[in-house]
Amino acid sequence: MDLLKKYINLSFVQFSPKFGDVESNLKTAYHLINKAEPGIIVLPELMNTGYNFKNISEVANLSESARYGNTSKILNKMSFDLKSTIIAGFCERSNNRYYNSAMVLSKGKFLGVYRKIHLFYREKLWFTTGNLGFKIFEVDNIKLGVMICSDWIWPESARTLALKGADVIAHPANLILKRLCQQTMPVRCFENQVYAVTANRIGKETRGSESFTYTGQSQIVAPDMKILTRANSNGNSVRSVKVNVFRSRNKNIHKRNNIIFDRQKQYYLL
């Protein structure tokens, strides 16, 4: 067991992005982020553009460079001013391809991106499957993993991050399946002994023939499955919880059982 303690604030920002109005969405995010305690702050999936694209042209017009786009510049400045790490979903353009991505910015430094691996529904029409794998970002001696929305359905997502040493999983999301993710993430946290911050959006997007109602209920979950805080299904919300993230480095679930060392890989199918 790691006897060290490392207290940090984990926060989520929940709101309803207006489709295609990047300037307005960034203003809303700016206002809400300032309500969070300094630490690790997670925003929803595609928080600057909205989610319900109608065609590839909209994706192309709203996509940005991860490092040099306006969204990155604004949020990076905020991360510096607030002495925090910000994880935010956005539509990434790279080498003439588009990705459903999350940028990681810490105290004025661009740390990198995670590109969503498990694409959901019509995302497969617009985005390329993520090609960077599940990554760990080092932040103040904390190991931060990132996954996006429907990645939660595949247990391998959180397990891979845990095997790579994640203390915290940042989880930007645009969830539409009622309560399922919110009920499942405590299990993901227990089976991997990690903290998770799910930052979901709210509202309804009707564009063309497609209409999505987002479930809200952003939450922060501890390794023992305890929901430390959860937002309502509607309404903007910013919640912060101070935790000892090194708690996640103790993978013992009982005196003789360790969630990692007791794995019997020879019996698992690949």
CATH class: Alpha Beta
At CATH level 3, the topology is Nitrilase/N-carbamoyl-D-aminoacid amidohydrolase
Radius of gyration: 18 Å
Mean pLDDT: 97
**Percent helix range:** 10-25%
What's the SSE pattern? Answer: EHEHHEEEHEEHEHEEEEEEEE
Q: In terms of structural class, how would the helical and strand content be classed?
A: alpha/beta
Secondary-structure map:
Elements: E1 7-14, H1 22-33, E2 39-42, H2 56-62, H3 70-81, E3 85-94, E4 97-106, E5 109-115, H4 123-126, E6 136-139, E7 142-146, H5 155-163, E8 168-172, H6 180-192, E9 195-199, E10 204-207, E11 210-213, E12 219-221, E13 227-230, E14 237-244, E15 252-254, E16 257-258
Parallel strand pairs: 1-2, 2-3, 7-8, 8-9
Antiparallel strand pairs: 1-14, 3-4, 4-5, 6-7, 9-12, 10-11, 12-13, 15-16
Helix pairs in contact: 1-3, 5-6
Descriptive notes:
With 270 residues, this protein is of the alpha/beta class. The protein has helices at 22-33, 56-62, 70-81, 123-126, 155-163, 180-192; strands at residues 7-14, 39-42, 85-94, 97-106, 109-115, 136-139, 142-146, 168-172, 195-199, 204-207, 210-213, 219-221, 227-230, 237-244, 252-254, 257-258. The strands form four sheets. The protein has a six-stranded mixed sheet. It has a six-stranded mixed sheet with strand order 6-7-8-9-12-13, with helices on one face. Strands 10-11 form a two-stranded antiparallel ribbon. Strand 1, helix 1 (22-33) and strand 2 (39-42) form a beta-alpha-beta unit. The chain is globular and about 55 Å long. It starts with 6 loop residues before the first strand and ends in a 12-residue tail after the last strand. The model has no long low-confidence stretch (mean pLDDT 97).
